[in-house]
Design goal:
The chain is α/β, with parallel strands linked by helices. It is built from 7 helices and 10 strands. The chain has one domain: Alpha-Beta Barrel (TIM Barrel). The two termini are 16 Å apart.
Length: 221
Amino acid sequence: MPIIVKICGLSTTNTMNAALDAGADMVGLVFFPKSPRHVSMETARDLAALARGRAEIVALTVDADDALLGEIVDQVAPDWLQLHGSESPERVREIRERFETPVMKAFGIRERDDLKAVSRYVGIADRILFDSKPPRDAEVPGGSGKRFDWRLMENLDLDVPFMLSGGLDADNVAEALDITGAGAVDVSSGVEAERGVKDARLIRRFIETVHRVDPERSAFD
């Protein structure tokens, strides 16, 4: 299958259109007030309407309660719920069943031991996302622009699809794909002109780079 490209933290019509026009497979909307990429429900509805039918819509939350998740599902109708907090396997299962929406569970990685927790979510989460583990005093759990040691992912054998995130940009994504064998990549800060502000040119460059190194896509270029 072609490598999936997700552009996360989109917040404007211009950058959403840039991602869609360049061929993003997934687009992420952040519902976490502490994040510089947080969007209001009204903005999220408008952006989701642009993406509907062109890319899968991912709603990112952090330890959200049922009230917020219910509002997101009702108002935005995402294709995926991305859980970027400390949600337990039981909570992930509950969310998936209650809201009848596929779930992507994020894990912060700094060392090999951080991978051990993933096995508890196999058969529960529909996809695993590996991100850089933030410092203990960080206010947000992702989007730091820091990469982790991708060699930790070598020969990783999972019974669930996974997505690679954390410090990716157009200059290093080919190397990251080569080392990890990831079938999906997620970028946020790597396509920003400044923290929280996406750059249409960088979005296009990132997606074009992935498409160039993806043999399934390159065959049709």
